[in-house]
Design brief:
Elements: H1 3-26, H2 32-46, E1 53-57, H3 63-71, E2 74-79, H4 82-91, E3 97-101, H5 107-111, E4 118-124, H6 134-143, E5 144-155, E6 165-173, E7 176-184, E8 192-196, E9 206-210, H7 213-222, E10 225-231, E11 252-259, H8 263-266
Parallel strand pairs: 1-2, 1-4, 2-3, 4-5
Antiparallel strand pairs: 5-11, 6-7, 8-9, 10-11
Helix pairs in contact: 1-4
The structure holds S-adenosylmethionine (SAM).
Amino acid sequence: MSEWKELNQESKLMWNKNAEFWDDYMGEESNRFHREIIRPHTEELLDVQADHTVLDIACGNGNFSRRLAEKAANVVAIDYSSKMIERAKLRSELKQIEYKVLDATDFDSLIALGNDRFNSAVANMALMDIVDIQPLLKALFYLLKDNGVFVFSITHPCFQSPNMRKVHEVEDMGGIVESRNSIQIFNYLTPLPYKAIGIKGQPTPHYMFHRPLSYYLNLAFQHHFVLDGIEEPSFQKENETNQFDWYEIPPAIILRFRKYAAASNNHL
Ligand SMILES: C[S@@+](CC[C@H](N)C(=O)[O-])C[C@H]1O[C@@H](n2cnc3c(N)ncnc32)[C@H](O)[C@@H]1O
């Protein structure tokens, strides 16, 4: 088995181990990070219409899929963790959501979802958890209709990378106490797998796959997508009581890529 296949297997086991904990924690409404930072911008960028069919990639417990289903005609929600999908199904019996155990690194299974089927696709905080995103970007060209969009959020790779260090400094400047937060980055350019914690207390750390921003952009450009939306959201300072949070350094980046329609005619 190749090194990447082994990593993918190991990574899936970790998500299966974490599924119950993750579902209990995220519940129906997800956490504050998702509610305040991810969802509002993602929903705006996706602009789901009543007659749309939407693909939710790496859907976890399906909390966002169910939100999508309130607006869209049909939602297909995929995740490679059978335990996550089990939990997602337990939470809803909405007919317009089709949950599927499907590995987003498997090009053939992705393509089998249907050529030209989707108006949009979304992957919330997931691509940095997927061992290889090349098959997915390649498949999305076929899955999406012309001018269809792919919106994804990831941990901001410029500010969160393997071995990064968060620094909180407090300095007494002649009676005036100043405090500052900063980040030290040690690895940025080299793609690298590493283990991390998404939610404090999760049963096991999971793999994350660091890639520089140019990797994501160039991969999408290569597969005939154009970038036409971007957000670097952060928490609102006035609502925040925790002094150790970060207002100036966005924890996530959200990108919208649009399938370049003219490319369909020339694509192999
Ligand atoms: C951080 S969770 C995000 C879940 C969900 N999108 C949300 O916002 O709540 C990452 C998800 O990616 C899934 N995942 C990781 N690699 C995958 C792959 N190769 N194919 C499908 N799902 C994958 C995991 O099982 C997990 O549910």
